[in-house]
């Protein structure tokens, strides 16, 4: 499975449990579901991973290179201040390994949520993946057999991140995830994000979503104040 730039999972998710309960320029868009809630969600794209190879680890087990581990360690100084209330990650090893040094520094466990996994594109690893990704970005409702559309990914991202904002209201949450997931998350809140931005996303990268009442403010590499589909009142 490719990501921006260079599987389905069953079972009760952290986001489902939370819901049922029981840095750069940015912009503001209106959503009326978290009135009264203030929370910061820091989205961290994983550091440099090993590339997929025949006979190698599957997408869940593909971890970071030595350089990737160095990059993950270098992120700690920025991710621990302000101190997050939790560190949550996609179950994919490269995402977990990227935020693990931060969690260890804070003496926190890395919580796992399969809703934070990368896009289930329906594509096998292939050299021309960028052409297929561009087609999906041109038509976010397009779905390949066995996969999900980018529109469905945005809906998944919004649900997972709203649940985290509700659970950790008043605090900051660090989230380890993946390029396409992180690009489609702001899109789910009404932000105009395109394939060139996704493809150019650094690795690792940090984006911030600030939930403030009925508004979401997003910032990170490539985002611009004018790149918004809706304006807050």
TrEMBL record:
SMART domains: PGAM (SM00855). It comes from the Bacteria. GO terms for molecular function: phosphatase activity. GO terms for cellular component: cytoplasm. Residues 1-25 are annotated as: Disordered. Pfam families: His_Phos_1. This is Phosphoglycerate mutase.
């Amino acid at each position: 499975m490719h990501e921006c730039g260079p599987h389905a999972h069953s079972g009760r998710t952290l986001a489902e449990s939370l819901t049922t309960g029981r840095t750069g320029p940015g912009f503001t868009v209106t959503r009326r579901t978290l009135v009264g809630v203030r929370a910061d969600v820091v989205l961290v794209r994983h550091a440099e991973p090993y590339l997929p190879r025949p006979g190698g680890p599957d997408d869940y087990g593909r971890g970071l290179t030595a350089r990737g581990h160095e990059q993950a360690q270098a992120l700690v100084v920025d991710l621990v201040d302000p101190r997050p209330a939790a560190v949550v990650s996609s179950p994919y090893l490269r995402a977990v390994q990227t935020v693990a040094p931060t969690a260890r520094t804070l003496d926190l466990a890395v919580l796992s949520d399969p809703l934070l996994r990368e896009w289930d594109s329906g594509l096998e690893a292939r050299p021309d993946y960028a052409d297929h990704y561009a087609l999906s970005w041109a038509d976010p409702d397009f779905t390949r057999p066995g996969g999900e559309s980018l529109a469905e990914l945005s809906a998944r991202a919004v649900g997972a991140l709203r649940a985290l904002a509700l659970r950790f209201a008043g605090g900051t949450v660090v989230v380890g995830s993946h390029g396409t997931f992180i690009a489609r998350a702001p899109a789910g809140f009404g932000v105009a994000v395109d394939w060139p931005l996704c493809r150019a996303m650094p690795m690792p990268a940090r984006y911030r979503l600030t939930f403030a009442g009925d508004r979401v403010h997003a910032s990170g590499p490539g985002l611009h104040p004018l790149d918004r589909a809706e304006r807050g009142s």
